Amino acid sequence: MQKMKGRRRTTIFRPGLMSNLIIYYKLINYKCMDNIMKCTPLGEQKSLWLRKTLLIMKFFVLFLLLGTVPCWAGIAYSQNVKMSLDMENTTVHDVINAIEKKGNFYFTYNLNQVNVNRKVSIKVENKTINQILDRLFSKSGIDYKIENRHIVLYKQATPEVEAVKQQKSINGIVADEQGEPIIGASVLEKGTTNGTITDLDGRFTLSIGKGTELIVSYVGYTTKTVKIGNQSTIKIVLIEDTKTLDEVVVIGYGTQKKSDVSGSVTSVSGDKLSKIPTANAEMALQGMAPGLSVNFGSGAAGSSATLQVRGVTSWKDDDGENSESNGPLVIIDGVPGNMSYLNPEDIKSISVLKDAATAAIYGSRSAAGVILIETHRGTMNSAPKITFSGYWGLSAMPKRLEVCNSAEFIKVRKMALTNAGTDESRWPKYISEYERDPSQFADTDWQKEYYQRGFTQKYNIGYTAGSANSNVSLSAFYSKTDGVTIATGDEKFGFRLNSDVTRGKFKMGESVSYSRWSADLESNSGFSSIYQVTNMEPLAFLYDENNDGGYGGAISGMGMSDAGNQVAFNKLIDNTSSTDYIAASGYLQYEPIKGLIVKFNASRNMYFSKSRLFTPTYEIGAAKRNTMASLSESRSQTTNDLLELTANYDKTIAEIHNLSLLLGLSQEENKYEDLSASGSDFENNSMSLMGHAKSNYSVGGTKTRSALRSLFGRVNYNYMMRYMIMASFRYDGSSRFAKGNKWGFFPSVSLGWNIANEPFWENLKETVSMFKLRLSYGALGNQNIGLYRYIPTLSYNTHALNYPFDGRETSMGYAITAFPSSNIKWETTVYKNIGVDISLWNNKLELSAEAYIKNTRDMLSSRNISLATGYNSSILVNDGKLRTTGFEMQAIYHGKAGGLKYDLDLNLSHYKSVLKSMANPDYLYEYGALRTYVGGEIGEFWVYQTAGIFQNQAEVDEWNTAHGYKDQNGNWQPLQPVAKPGDIRFIDQNGDGMLDTNDRVKVGSGTPKVSLGFNINLAYKDFDLVANFYGDFGAKRYNYTKYQLERMDHVFNYGKNALNAWTPENPDTDIPRAVSGDPNKNSRTSTRFVENGDYLRLNNLQIGYNLPVKYCKKMGLSNLRIYVGATRLFTITNYKGYDPSTGSSVGQMGYDYAAIPLSRDFMMGLKFGF
User: Fold this and answer.
1) Residue 186 has what pLDDT?
2) Based on the domain organization, do 83 and 212 belong to the same domain?
3) How would you classify the pairing of strands 1151-1152 and 506-520?
4) Window from 189-203, 295-309, 585-599, 987-1001 with minimum mean pLDDT
5) Do residues 965 and 992 make contact, with C-beta atoms less than 8 angstroms apart?
6) How far apart are CA 1003 and CA 1095, in angstroms?
7) TM spans, by residue (predicted)?
8) Distance CA 674, CA 1145 (A)
9) Same domain, 977 and 1107
């Protein structure tokens, strides 16, 4: 037990613990000043990133200096400090307290040996601590030892004890199964209080009686009892106790033993995430938890991942809010937050709540699941500790598409024009000019020029400390990543402070964090950058000093097309964005009676975002000009306030009934406002402030506010750890609905039965330690419907709203432009979940499987209204239904083989989401080749089906004779009237003799049938290896980039596949003939561009070396790990596009619309502590 008052600390060891404490204090007597001074040479570096990093570190070290000055005072302090005492008829305990208060010392002693209740009187004037202690403990049999400010009291050895010690002295070492020494292991003589702890090398020396036994223990390992014979030395190996691994999981507003959980929860430890080098916490989660999808829209700088728990939860047909409605609620240290601004190194654990039983406590925001994140906090009674980690790496594009060079481009263009019957006199001039003199043209590899090798770096520094009743954790980080495309990249930095203080029945604490993200983003002229890079003609020059801006493009007078010089756009256009994120929360906790905890929590999260887009004047070739510079800027502020009051009561009755009750109130308010402005016509490109604009001014702004008020509760009960029941509810009131529909009630219940705890299972317990069945049912809500749908919407300053008065010119006005949907209410998702958890062989193998159904009802959908109302629009009603079904499995194995220790984690998940109904039964959403409709799966591919290539005119004639229709005049109209040999044959699916959208067929979905995560952790002696695999199987992908590179109805560059186009001499190909204009529409949306999207990727590979403790000790460190690694090292796939994983969003899964791929990174790093 420890207790602290102010800056004083007393460590008291209760009976049964070790009495030899001096070694322990040597372990924590860090030479802080020496280690900090080793950092100063870094200040000589002059690069920008390092100066920023050092600035953060300076503030951080300043905090450490202020908070840990006492640990650097040295032994001289005890020799120099003097004090006076005058205390009559008091206790030793009171004198110790007085010494701690006046001298800033702290004491350690064993209550079995030191009688602190002994009555004493002491009067000293200006005496040293040694003189005072000599007088205080004179003739008491108590001795002391002073190290720095630590004073250890212990009982003087008696002759009898000495005799015992002379009987036997044992020297030993305590190690784990890999032979690594265990520091701080307890070694206790059985039946006595005689004991010690191991030093930094795992060694100990203890005097014991003959024929005795030693009890050796350490947290996380099985306690071992060893009988001592005649030997004087011994090596003791402790076995890791897998029962202690992951015993507690975080649930809403509390924690629960893993064996007691009856709902669906998956936990991921921060230790696993810390070995994935990334500044993006969301990215590190891919493949870590079954049922959690991590989707990437793009690998461009500034892009972030989107999370989805158990598939699609809601579908909206009018406002594009599908992503918001399908994203999980993220709770960071009890407060709604944003993972994008969270440093992965700060994460202690993540819990994914996946069913109604676990998520219903969050009510209206939990329909799409909940992700609970705990950040690192300090621990009580812990010595100050500093950690540092960092990595450096290079990133690059993992793949480039094969496109034509200049000579190949000319060859395909000639072939296409010839097949189209175009006379050579009408050919573009660049063809003849190139054949006459190729040197007047470029041969630009636009992908090579646009993609770059980027440098990435990240640094983390952390500090933790704890006393008997307080703890603190402080961390800071900095990261900078160059984008894989030229002139792009992003930068992040921030800090986090967590602390807790306990005073009697009160406990309070806070969490404060700040982070800043800024990025130089992609810039373009209205088209995807990948589209422009792959389609840009290789004939065009990258640079041209004669052009405004200095960049090249299509050559004037040559008839060249110009997709756009994307290098120029990125370099000339200033497109930046940044966000400052501040999160602050504090709590006050009171325990009036044992087991009852009342807690008040208050928090505020604030986002300050700004963006800037300045497009200067430029001339990039003959086809791309901007003669008037323009500027757009925006500022926004988001504020989220939360107040919560909870009461939690835990009670165990007769050691067999375990009851936990929770009741809480919550009030949340969200405010948002923005201001935007734009202008153009600047004097020159250097004068690019908004005040310099001369024309086309525009100013706009938005201000919104919403609130949520809630009552929630939960009952958790288990009987003898066999039968479990959990029931919870949340009653939410939201400002997003009209009166009468504001409140929603969301209950849930779950049952669990751990058969392995039944008496009849006793003989199987050693093999199957847990066999738990789980069942849950409940309702969750969704309020993400927009803020003001239930009231009329007014619009101002539009062309339709200009009113003339008295024949004068028109005036601005307001008008209602959207019909109010006053009857809209909560969307509700009803969950059914069944699962089983099995643990075998002392938890070496952990298995879990579950299946679920979630039905969403009352989804918002649009219903047309009569024009007689005066509105040419629709009204929102709660008529939509969606059904998602799925299953998940996970297997975790902890194994050892010789000196090798390994953990294997395999998880699989599957889901399918079907739209069951909408207000309009003929509802159809189309996005290119994708369709979502009533009765179908979300995001199906519907395309024309091909049937090979016509090899000769006879095949064309035969096909058109058999397929077609008669028009109203009785004339035969062939199915493909302009088809020629080399064109694609398309199937008339409905047999009406025409090719139209009704002939499209379903060929699959962009949603994977199975998603797989496979995570490997190996350790052998001082080496370790981490490998994280992820894969999707059973999905289709529409390769839009292939469509762009093989289509013949434009005159941009082609893929090299075009060189393999059909000709009479090259009939064995699946590439149709090259023909300008594509009269047969060979490039229409068809099975030609739908590919197998299966892939398996090695997301992360890391090989580390841990310096042995004895060498760390010589360097003043507690640990040191160095490693090398790579991300996305390889991908096994047949997909021909850039990346089979990008371009994924709700309703558009699998549609690869020229998304920038994720980079491949190679890096090295280190981590150490002291």
Assistant:
1) 80
2) no
3) unpaired
4) 189-203
5) yes
6) 18
7) 55-77
8) 26
9) no
- Are 63 and 46 in the same domain? yes
Is the pLDDT confidence value at 9 over 60? Answer: no
**pLDDT bracket for residue 867 (50, 70, 90):** low
Q: At 317, is the secondary structure helix, strand, or coil?
A: coil
Instruction: Tell me how many degrees the CA angle 615-621-625 measures, rounded to the nearest 5.
Output: 35
- % the chain with pLDDT above 70: 87
CA distance 193 to 203: 19
Number of compact structural domains in the chain = 4
Local structure of 403: helix, strand or coil: strand
Per DSSP, helices labelled H in 360-465 are 406-419, 429-436, 446-450
- Determine how β-strand 213-217 pairs with β-strand 224-227: antiparallel
Q: Are residues 126 and 90 in the same domain?
A: yes
Q: Which residue has the tokens 């099995």?
A: 838
Shared-domain flag, residues 58 and 30? yes
Following DSSP, what letter does each residue of 613-651 receive, concatenated?
A: EEE--EEEBTTEEE-S-EEEEEEEEEEEEEEEEEEEEEE
1151-1152 and 1036-1039 beta bridge pairing? parallel
**Of residues 506 and 1154, more confidently modeled:** 506
Determine the pLDDT at residue 810.
Answer: 60
| CA neighbor of 1132 nearest in space, from 1032, 1047, 1061, 1039 | 1032
Residue type, 291: G
593-612: pLDDT as tens digits: 999 999 999 999 999 999 99
Place of tokens 């090695």: 1098
3-class DSSP string for 1104-1122: EEECCHHHHHHCCCCEEEE
**Token match 């149709």: residue?**
1072
- Mean pLDDT to the nearest integer, 151-165: 58
Q: What are phi and psi of 126, to 5 degrees?
A: 50, 55
Q: 993: domain range?
A: 945-999
Contact 1162, 1098 (CB under 8 A): no
In a domain, 1124, yes or no: yes
pTM: 0.80
Spatial CA neighbour of 456 closest among 1169, 1167, 1160, 1168: 1160
Rounded to the nearest 10 degrees, the angle between the axes of helix 129-136 and helix 92-103 is 180
Q: Please determine, for residue 798, whether its predicted confidence score (pLDDT) is greater than 60.
A: no
Nearest CA among 994, 984, 985, 982 for reference residue 953: 982
From 176, 205, 240, the end of a domain falls on 240
Contact in structure between 736 and 785 (CB atoms under 8 Å): yes
Phi and psi (nearest 5°) for 821? Answer: -110, 75
Residues 134 and 20 in one domain: yes
- My answer on whether 187 and 88 are in the same domain is no
> How confident is the model at residue 872, as a pLDDT?
58
**Phi and psi (nearest 5°) for 1118?**
-90, -25
**CA–CA gap between residue 572 and residue 682 (Å, rounded):** 15
Looking at the predicted structure, is the pLDDT value of residue 69 above 50? no
pLDDT over 90 (residue 5): no
The total of other beta-carbon atoms located within 10 Å of residue 550's CB is 15
Q: If DSSP codes are grouped into helix, strand and coil, which group holds residue 102?
A: helix
Q: What is the mean pLDDT of the chain?
A: 85
| Range scoring the smallest mean pLDDT among 108-112, 395-399, 654-658 | 108-112
Length of the chain: 1170
Structure tokens at 1066: 């090259």
Residue 868: per-residue pLDDT:
62
Is the separation of the CB atoms in 22 and 147 below 8 Å? yes
pLDDT tens by residue, 105-135: 777 777 667 888 888 889 888 888 888 888 8
Contact indicator for 187, 30 with CB cutoff of 8 Å: no
Question: Is the pLDDT score of 48 beyond 50?
Answer: no
Specify the DSSP class assigned to residue 1029: E
- Residue with tokens 């009510």, as numbered in its chain: 363
**Phi/psi of residue 1006, each to 5°?**
-80, -5
CB distance 370 to 328 below 8 Å: yes
Query: Same domain, yes or no, for 151 and 221?
Result: no
- pLDDT of 723: 95
